[in-house]
Amino acid sequence: IIALLIGILLPALGKARNAARQAVSLANIRQLTTACLMYANDYNDFYPVNCGVDPNNPNALDPDDGLAPRRWFDDVVLGQYIESTDGSDFGYIPNPPLRSTVGGTVMVNPAHPQPAARSYAMNYWASAYTRFTITGTPGNGARFNLIVKPGDYGTLDSQKGRQFKASADFSSRLMLITDAWAQYWKDDDEDGEFKAVTIESVGTWGTPGQRFGSDPAFNYRDLFQWAGTQNRANPEYVQGSRPRSYIPYYRHGGNSNDIYAREGIGQFGFADGSARAYRPSELYNSDTMKSTYEVLWSPNDEKVEKTP
Fold this sequence. Notes:
Blueprint: H1 2-42, E1 120-123, E2 131-136, E3 144-148, E4 175-179, E5 182-187, E6 194-198, E7 201-202, H2 208-212, E8 266-270, E9 275-278, H3 280-283, H4 301-305
């Protein structure tokens, strides 16, 4: 009888535990979204910046303080609005000097399988700007930087979207925050434990539908691009396989034996302050490989995917 009861109760307890983790994660995303909206209110309608660290271009420093270019999770950015309990970022790049970051607490998805300090990322197309371009180096050592916003790189893929601000239309569908793949380990300041962290933004490449996983053959070229080449890189990288979406659906009800399968649930925070969860089938059409536009990467998603 006891064995029978255990067999009945364990699946129910597992479902309840997963539902609780999903609820906590959705609340985290809602709080992070609110922080981004507060930032936009204070910074002329712009959401936070997301200039990734470029290990091949250490001269691309922030002109204000000479540190690494700013990202949404830096303490000087969202640290104004949310508390951090884990403030050091990944340390595999010795130069440029990195910033203190916001980590732990609401930055961690309780369904993240590895010890984690950050589980979420911003939508690339919501970023105020996304890159510094070196335009010259005067004799005194100062650096001139041209700020580049999303969609302005001049390549075909980079034009598959449009930057948006807090005043944009379709706010209830425009994504700000999402679950994201952890691509690096970081050292914990206090106990030396390695913890997984995400990069700053997702959704750079491909069409809206491809970003959600509509095209099994699509190459997510900015995911795990340093696999096997950097110390402690890519905690969710599976040797011999590759992601089939920017979204790690598996964390909520997916296939733990194939984390890249497009199974489970994706969670998103929106520009109206709401947060909702969707299954992959609700986000893209497998036949047309187009987005359903229930969740938007940018205001012109439909235009991007319109058949010529």
